[in-house]
Design a protein that fits this description.
With 104 residues, this protein is mainly α. The protein contains 4 helices and no strands.
Length: 104
């Protein structure tokens, strides 16, 4: 939907902020860095002075040193969990693109 807002003007631009989840859109944007996309990254630690003390204490205590913390605190794009039964690629392969009409 964001792309629909970028259809006017000679050089439309947008700012997108996100947790770096390994979804196709984020991976595509990162691949395009330096072309028509500029990727900037920042960690929670680089922004500590702007965060509430309770947030810093609780969130860092809870997530520091964990896999989720690497994504949320360190801004890392994580691939599949080692040893996972289902990989992201397998889930995408099996995704239902169309379904039959529902019966009432």
């Amino acid at each position: 939907m964001m792309m629909l807002g970028l259809r006017v003007g000679e050089k439309p631009q947008a700012v997108l902020t996100s947790t770096p989840k390994p979804i196709p859109l984020i991976r595509d944007l990162v691949k395009r860095d330096g072309q028509d996309v500029v990727v900037t990254k920042g960690t929670t630690y680089e922004n500590l002075e702007n965060l509430a003390p309770a947030f810093k204490t609780e969130i860092i205590r809870r997530y520091e040193g964990t896999r989720l913390g690497r994504q949320e605190l360190n801004a890392e794009i994580l691939d599949d969990v080692p040893g996972a039964l289902w990989t992201r690629g397998l889930l995408e392969e099996c995704r239902v693109r169309e379904c039959p009409p529902l019966k009432v």
